Amino acid sequence: MKLPFEFLHFTEIEALNVGAYVLGIFIIAFILLKILRAILNKFIKSSSDEMRVDPTQYKFLSNALGFIIYTIALIIIFMSIDKLKEFGIALFASAGILAAIIGFASQAAFSNIVSGVFIVIFKPFRVGDIVKIGASAGVVEDITLRHTVIKDFENKRLVIPNSAISSDTILNYNIVEDKVCNHIFYGISYDSNIDLAIKIIQEEAMAHEHFIDYRSDDDIAKGIPSVIVRFLEYGESSINLRAQVWSEDPIKGFELKCDINKSIKERFDREGIEIPFPYRTIVYKEAKKES
User: Fold this and answer.
1) How far apart are CA 273 and CA 264, in angstroms?
2) What would the pLDDT profile of 230-265 be if each residue is shown by its tens digit?
3) Per-residue pLDDT averaged across 74-82, rounded?
């Protein structure tokens, strides 16, 4: 049975020594990586908690450490062993091999790395942001050299290549501020009291625990209500209203919308506000002929 490195014309003893040396270098690299990541992760946590520092760059660096350290380990191995050094030079001197490496790197792998660096530099989103990329939505959990990990609202992980993200439209709910204006739509019948319906919507929205009053002092002085309800249009079978209700973030906004939809429906039923539905008249041709 051939030992590793025998294809480089090592003797059995030399091959064993080289194997032990390579294994030792990788063990040291592994231990060093664990230590550096532990230090960096501790720094990320303390900085994020105490100084509110954006952890995105540090998490990206933590993920890139493995690539950097193992690359350095490989360079050390090739440079410190003469026969491996000669083999490495011959390998990279080969035009065919070099062209294949460049061709591969310039496509998928290199594209993901460059896109990941651009994400960290230009910050279209950060770790912890709520985003929607294409049809996928959730909280950004991690950004690596190759991909971005998003935790969706069912606690599943979406692993999206960085290059795919760079070429898609990103909806970021937190890029400027977390507060969100929730647009909630209601349809009431033409016979219903519009003013009463608006009053009910405002009262139920303001009573919710996630509602926030986002008015400025100038808005309050002008008497602008904290929940604005607009008369949008005359629908086919309803008068359509839209409420603007503010919450601290999109997640609390979703809970708010679900809760007040239920409470408003209950209030509408108690106070005689009808939520209409379209009526359809079906005519059967055969029945028409018989008549």
Assistant:
1) 10
2) 999 998 889 999 999 999 988 899 999 999 999 999
3) 75
Q: What is the pLDDT of residues 79-100, one digit of tens each?
A: 777 666 666 665 555 555 555 5
Measured CA to CA, the distance from residue 249 to residue 227 in angstroms comes to 17
Bridge-based pairing state of the strands 239-247 and 136-143: unpaired
Long-range contacts made by residues 167-172, C-beta under 8 angstroms, separation at least 24?
A: 168/133, 168/134, 169/133, 169/134, 170/124, 170/125, 170/131, 170/132, 170/133, 171/131, 171/132, 171/133, 171/137, 172/124, 172/125, 172/129, 172/130, 172/131
246 and 212 in contact (C-beta within 8 Å)?
yes
Distance CA 277, CA 190 (A): 12
Q: How confident is the model at residue 58 (pLDDT cuts 50, 70, 90)?
A: low
Q: Using CA atoms, how far apart are residues 275 and 268, in angstroms rounded to an integer?
A: 8
Q: What confidence category does residue 11 fall into, taking pLDDT thresholds of 50, 70 and 90?
A: low
Q: Is the pTM of this model over 0.70?
A: no
Q: Is 185 left (phi over 0), alpha (psi -120 to 50) or beta?
A: beta
Distance CA 163, CA 147 (A): 8
Which two three-digit tokens encode residue 92? 């990279």
**Residue 106 tokens, joined:** 């310039």
pLDDT higher than 90, residue 67: no
